[in-house]
Specification:
The chain folds into 2 domains: about 70 residues, Arc Repressor Mutant, subunit A, CATH 1.10.10.10; about 130 residues, Up-down Bundle (Four Helix Bundle (Hemerythrin (Met), subunit A)), CATH 1.20.120.530. Helices cover about 65% and strands about 5% of the residues. It has 10 helices and 2 strands; from the N terminus they run H-H-H-E-E-H-H-H-H-H-H-H. The chain has a two-stranded antiparallel ribbon with strand order 1-2. Helix 4 crosses helix 7 and helix 5 packs antiparallel against helix 8. The longest helix has 25 residues. The chain is globular.
């Protein structure tokens, strides 16, 4: 990874880096996260690696298997449904609250996020586009100024990335362009009711884009997946 020498790799920083790699599908579900290899990749001790993996397991992104080690989680069909049901309960109302609190500065951040998402799609980097799509949803939760819900939404979005990696069947799983632009228009008008309904429909469309039969392949090595 190109910025390895520029960072102090604490366990918290490693958590963020691994989570982004998982979110961008550079580390697909089922990938074994070997402590020795991660220690070598980051140039850190196995103690720091273990702490990072434990932190990711608390967010249900990594699964720790007794006598086998750590693996990127593979959500079951039931878990996939539960995650999106939870998002359908939380995010529409969060979008409503965000619309009422929206400022020009917040809108600018959301617009920039969508530009980054489109730029990634234009070069065929679907994993990075998915990351920015998730950030768009997370930013909405932040704007809503509901810290507890934001924490829940953050975990649900990360788990959604795993679900999409396993089960997506079409590009719509990356979040449809029109859906995000429609949400931006509702936010610009501070129309909470419209934002709530648009988010509800958006999440339903996202679930409809999943195919519960598809499974992705793990990368050949952690070094390859984490290379910038």
């Amino acid at each position: 990874m190109s910025e390895t020498d520029k960072k102090t790799w604490t366990s918290d920083v490693v958590v963020l880096d691994l989570e982004r790699a998982i979110h961008e599908h550079r580390l697909p579900p089922g990938t074994k996260l070997g402590e020795d290899e991660l220690s070598e990749v980051y140039g850190i001790s196995r103690t720091i690696v273990r702490a990072a993996l434990l932190g990711l397991s608390h967010r249900h992104i990594v699964e720790l298997k007794r006598n086998r080690g750590a693996f990127v989680a593979q959500p079951s069909v039931r878990e996939a449904r539960e995650v999106f049901e939870a998002r359908a309960l939380l995010e529409p109302r969060t979008a409503h609250s965000a619309a009422l609190r929206m400022t020009d500065a917040n809108l600018a951040i959301l617009h920039e996020n969508i530009r980054d998402e489109h730029a990634a799609l234009d070069v065929g980097d679907n994993g990075r586009a998915l990351f920015y799509s998730g950030q768009f949803h997370l930013e909405i939760a932040r704007i809503a100024d509901q810290a507890t819900i934001e924490t829940f939404v953050s975990e649900l979005i990360s788990r959604s990335s795993l679900i999409i990696a396993l089960y997506w069947r079409r590009r719509a799983a990356l979040c449809e362009t029109q859906a995000h632009h429609a949400l931006l228009e509702a936010f610009a008008q501070k129309d909470g009711d419209a934002a709530e309904q648009l988010m509800k429909g958006h999440l339903l469309d996202l679930v409809a884009s999943l195919d519960l039969r598809n499974v992705t392949q793990a990368p050949t090595s952690l070094r390859e997946a984490l290379q910038r």
